[in-house]
Amino acid sequence: MGVLTPTYFDKEKGNTMKILIAYAGKTGVTERCAKQLAKECTTATLANLNEKQVSPENFDLIVVGSPVYSHKLEPSVKYFIKDNEKSLQEKQFAVFVTMVEEDTFDKVIAHEIPESLRQRAFAMQQFGGEVNDLTSFGWHDRLVAKAMVKLESKKHPIALRLEALLDFAKILKEKEVKK
Ligand SMILES: Cc1cc2nc3c(=O)[nH]c(=O)nc-3n(C[C@H](O)[C@H](O)[C@H](O)COP(=O)(O)O)c2cc1C
């Protein structure tokens, strides 16, 4: 387990927010979003919470990203929020999720993110989701996922919504240069 230190000084823009994008996932969809968001920022530190421990202490702005599985966030993301709830309350805070059952977003957020952080968040967004690789799941999860995709695809495309990611990135970039 490595401990991350922030990279944050931008020569052209001067003093920018120290941004941490802490995320986790199972099949790479959320990771792709986290990396895309990091690219949109001048400097952001990425941390895959399934691989590394990271403390929010050294950062000004924390973005938490997670997929939704069985109406819940990835456990490592949930623990990161729970373990650092107090510290996160003093930071700029935002959340994104990738998910397929898009109309359950509000319910999932209300259940999974403590109220104090929901109130504090400057952005909470779902980016849609993808179901690509089911090989790492057991037979029951595969069945559930296939049924979910079949049902949801009647309502909306099963895909990442790039425009939602770019809107989120825009808000993030505005925050980045304000200190
Ligand atoms: C077994 C399984 C269960 C899932 N459960 C939900 C769910 O409860 N709600 C939802 O909106 N999406 C659900 N999804 C969709 C995932 O959130 C979506 O595929 C996500 O983009 C995966 O991100 P990841 O690759 O970062 O893990 C599920 C997917 C699978 C395979």
Question: How does this structure look, described?
Answer:
This protein has 179 residues and is α/β, with parallel strands linked by helices. The protein has one domain (9-176): Rossmann fold (3-Layer(aba) Sandwich). The protein contains seven helices and eight strands, in the order βββαβββααβααβαα. It has helices at residues 29-40, 75-83, 85-89, 105-112, 115-120, 139-152, 162-176, and strands at residues 9-10, 14-15, 19-23, 44-48, 61-69, 72-73, 92-98, 123-126. Strands 3, 4, 5, 6, 7 and 8 form a six-stranded mixed beta sheet that branches. The longest helix has 15 residues, at 162-176.
Record keyword descriptors for this entry.
179 residues; alpha/beta; Rossmann fold; 6-stranded mixed beta sheet; 39% helix; globular
Model regions low in confidence, pLDDT < 50 over at least 5 residues: none
Class per helix and strand makeup: alpha/beta
H-E string: EEEHEEEHHEHHEHH
Shape: globular
First-last Cα distance: 31 Å
The averaged pLDDT comes out at 92
CATH architecture descriptor text: 3-Layer(aba) Sandwich
Q: Please report which band the strand proportion falls in: under 5%, 5-15%, 15-25%, 25-35%, 35-45% or over 45%.
A: 15-25%
Q: How many domains, as an integer?
A: 1
Highest-level CATH class: Alpha Beta
Task: Tell me roughly what share of residues is in helical segments.
Answer: 25-40%
Radius of gyration: 16 Å
Q: Provide a count of the helices.
A: 7
Q: Bound compounds, please?
A: flavin mononucleotide
CATH topology: Rossmann fold
Q: In the CATH hierarchy, what is the superfamily?
A: Flavodoxin domain
Pfam families: Flavodoxin_5
Protein name: Flavodoxin
GO biological process, one term: heme biosynthetic process
GO molecular function: FMN binding; menaquinone-dependent protoporphyrinogen oxidase activity; oxidoreductase activity, acting on NAD(P)H
